[in-house]
Amino acid sequence: MPADNELDPLDRWLNQQVRPLPPPAGTFELITKRARRRRVRKAVISVAGAAAVAAAVGVAVPLGMSLHLNTTPTNAGLAAGSATGSKSATQSSLGTGTKVASPAASSASASASAGSASTGPNVPGWLPPNFTPSSVTWDSLTTGWVVGPAGTPGHCGARQDSSICTSVAVTHDGGQTWSGLPAPTGGGPNIATGVSGLRFLNATYGWAFGPGLWATDDGGDHWHLVDTGKLSVPQLETINGRVYALFADCRDIDQNPDAACTSYTLKTATAGSDDWTPVGGVPGNLTGGSADFTQAAGQEDAAILELAGATGTQPATGYLVAPDGTLYAGPLDGTAWHKVAALPCVPGPGNGGGGRPQGLQLAPAGTTPAGATRLAMVCRPGLPAGKTSVYQSTDNGSTWTEQAGVASMPATTVPSSLTSLPDGTLILAANPASGVGGGVLSGGIYLLPPGATQWQPANLSDPSGKKYGFTYVGMTSATQGVALGGNPDLHAIWMTTDGGQTWTVRPIQS
Fold first, then answer.
1. Where on the phi/psi map is residue 68: left (φ > 0), alpha (ψ -120 to 50), or beta?
2. Residue burial 487-503, b: 16+ Cβ < 10 Å; e: rest
3. What domains, with CATH codes, occur in the chain?
4. What is the pLDDT of residues 202-235, one digit of tens each?
5. Poorest-confidence range of 47-61, 65-79, 388-402, 469-483?
């Protein structure tokens, strides 16, 4: 510093003109991106806060029972759970997994789904190759999540490598692009702590299940294992700030923990709580067994859990079909349910053990002129040769009438999931019957308009969907819907924008 300066160094520095330093490159873009993300999350939370979550995605869907969705009092809903385009997945930062200490969870790993490396398979937001979605859930027309195995299924390794284990992806643009999220690290569905299903109540609370049970209260950034008392959780649905699930006593056969579930108990918890309590009015340890099905050794009948959002005259209602065909129903506020009726058919064995049954599918089908819930049921006893029958109830499930004249599905087709449109049109996902091969195209998605007597096959953008079949179908609105299944090599979900008439592939990873 010059010797003739009148100011000491500090004064001289304080009196200098200050020129602000420019921000690092990309700062403004990062701020804009984060602000946009906050706005999206705020909008989703606002939508979900005004909605009642039922079983799938569906806006303007009557009740959303088999859709894993949110349903507003004006019958608007959102499909869950559980389209053309091949854009690359976007990226977002990943969090870590943690574990809640419990006796049943003491051996489960809960490390981050994505590793700490900054390049390669563990880059934050990176989607591993060969992502095959096993479950889908939505809380608006644009925001949805999928879970499924990726990489080489069944080869997770001791370090739970995220590139070949259970993965979760999210979309905020209706399935056009996807980004990776942390996933529960308990393994795949062939491990007691693994998962195959996913449901989000809103942008904050979500659950991964089947057979294990994991929960998140920060939008999927972190997951913790829930103590189920060594029971499996094959089915789970969310609605009205609550979550309902079937807790099943299952045994492992050939590394399938849910291969034979002998009893089911319906439980519920509030969002953000791991305190699960049995639902009053529904007996615990529900069992069944039916001579209507030829079952493999050790295979048992499954159960069905469906949640229906409120309509203009009817409150939100839950439905449970026990393995013996008994229907229970009740309010979705944590209070007791009641026995409704003995159904004309039983669920039958479940796909993959305690999962969705093969013999009975249940869905809401609008409301009657008097305002009562109209329910629809598709039965297929005596698989694979049994006749496919359609039943309707106009008194909330108390009595059922077979819809006359409806032609049976082909004997090579097994119903796997049912949903409906506001006008009462039924949409059915179907798989090829076990053992059917030789190029027989018996799976697919079928529609039955009101009064029709013939199931109409939907148009599929990829014909392989008929050969491989579909495991789930749900509507997010009267025109938009989502389906799972088809050729697993597509690594995609399927979507419709014309009310189920046409279904196109929407890849998760290009």
1. left
2. bbebbbbbbbbebbeeb
3. 27-507 (2.130.10.10)
4. 999 999 998 999 999 999 999 999 999 999 999 9
5. 47-61
